[in-house]
Design brief:
Shape: globular
Largest sheet: none
Radius of gyration: 21 Å
Strand content: under 5%
InterPro entries: Fe3_Rdtase_TM_dom (IPR013130)
Number of helices: 13
Transmembrane segments: 46-66, 87-108, 138-158, 170-190, 202-220, 241-263
Structural class: mainly alpha
Protein name: Ferric oxidoreductase domain-containing protein
Helix content: over 70%
Bound molecules: protoporphyrin IX containing FE
Number of strands: 0
GO cellular component, one term: membrane
Main location: membrane
Length: 285
């Protein structure tokens, strides 16, 4: 419910920005100014943003569950766990809504016979490589990979007794890859964060708390056996110890890269074209 309210609020913001011609979506794709034709596209964008926000939140909660937790946190462990479960399920639903609205918009714009419209939309939305717009070559498969990995890595929780809790824990760690793919997809493809500016900077900045919590989670894991200096760690293999050390070094490196990107402003954003109204984003070929 909260997710839908947030999505609606984002939709209103995106819509108003389109109407007032402040939206960079219009700089990339001027034809998107027709609000009666493209409202589903803005709604898909809004679901993309709530999906990313929920993914961000659930990753933070997950890292608090598996790493150190501030003593003054008002939420108990079990409540935090429940919140992690519901926000994760919401994230998957929001991603699906984001993709389905994109497909719906393709169907709406198409003038072919119905079976062909639906077939093309499914191909372009859900099959990697199916959507060959100039800039979507990598961005689309990255988003699709995030969705397709999120489903098993999240939902395996419900069969954890069958696959074994340890296997579940090891596999579930890879949801961090889902999160990285989601952010990557957004920064590559989101037309609201296409250019250098406050929106794009905010997306980058929001990654700092995640990287910091990831480092803390590795330095002070909730599970004793994962600590570098614990008796369990010494009993474990040398390879395991090496892996844990590599993880910590990688986490520090990630924070370094994020700080460098944010401080230098070299964050992959394009420079806003001066008075160029020609589309750089081929939408429907
Ligand atoms: C089947 C999977 C996916 C498809 C087909 C898809 C499709 C798209 C498309 C076409 C855009 C460009 C919209 C624009 O013009 O701004 C986009 C942007 C975006 N996507 Fe996805 N996406 C998928 C997965 C994901 C996932 C997993 C997330 C995050 C959890 C996500 C979050 C976003 C966000 C935040 C934007 C930026 C929207 C904007 O700039 O307003 N997407 N996606």
């Amino acid at each position: 419910m909260v997710a839908l309210v947030v999505t609606a609020a984002v939709f209103v913001i995106l819509f108003v920005r389109i109407k007032s011609e402040a939206s960079s979506t219009l700089t990339v794709m001027p034809f998107m100014a027709d609000t009666s034709a493209f409202w589903m596209y803005y709604l898909s964008q809004a679901f993309g943003w709530s999906a990313l926000l929920w993914a961000w939140g659930t990753v933070i909660i997950g890292l608090l569950l598996s790493g150190p937790r501030p003593a003054r946190l008002p939420l108990s462990g079990p409540r935090l766990e429940r919140l992690h479960r519901t926000t994760s399920l919401n994230t998957i639903a929001l991603i699906v809504a984001h993709a389905l609205l994109f497909a719906a918009e393709l169907i709406y714009q198409d003038t072919d016979a119905w079976p062909s419209r639906v077939g093309t939309a499914v191909l372009e939305t859900f099959i990697p490589g199916g959507y060959n717009s100039g800039t979507g070559v990598w961005a689309m498969p990255i988003g699709q990979a995030a969705l397709y990995l999120a489903i098993p890595l999240g939902l395996l929780f419900y069969v954890r007794h069958r696959i074994g809790p340890k296997t579940w824990r090891v596999l579930h760690r890879f949801v961090l890859v889902v999160y990285i793919l989601s952010v990557w997809h957004t920064l590559l493809y989101g037309t609201n964060v296409w250019y250098d500016g406050a929106f794009r900077n905010t997306v980058w900045l929001l990654q700092l708390p995640i990287a910091a919590l990831f480092l803390l989670r590795l330095l002070r894991p909730a599970r004793r056996s994962e600590r570098l200096a614990s008796a369990g760690a010494h009993r474990g293999s040398k390879a395991g110890w090496g892996l844990r050390l590599t993880g910590r070094v990688a986490a520090v490196a990630i924070i370094g890269v994020l700080v460098a990107v944010i401080a230098s402003g070299r964050d992959g954003g394009r420079t806003v074209p001066p008075e160029d109204t020609s589309s750089t984003h081929v939408h429907d070929d």
